[in-house]
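Bug #77: duplicate submission created two jobs. Keeping one. Sequence:
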Amino acid sequence: MSDAIPAGYQIIFCTWENDLNARATETWSGIQEPEDVRFLLAIAAHFTSQHHPRPGRGNEYLTADEMIEVVESTMARFPGISDDMRMLFDAERDECDGDDETLGERWYDLIADRILGYPEDQSYCDAPMFCRVFERASVYYFAQPVEDITEQFQ
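Kept job's structure:
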């Protein structure tokens, strides 16, 4: 048996694209610090629908500069994020050697991989950095790792 869910906070992000279709969830587990949870939720909040009470950039294509602005402005609002979280985003910056286009694309991939998901409708894949709509998130805390016991039921 292996640990399926590490100890710490878990965020389940619910997203969609176009007209509320292609719903999906992304799960980020093992977050150790509450400030990191707040930071990730703030990143996600940039991508609400244009029809949300606090309109965001969801269901839009972003440029590299716009993606950099999302991350940098959020990092500035949350100076207390953990070193691990900061390093996750800074590692992408370090590998880009000042190339903002590449940095924006790398941060898009990180956010799509862990928060928004990638577009499912191929028509949105024609241009880079289409951002799904962030609808809501659920946050859980696991004091101990949760074991995967699926084998016991097969």
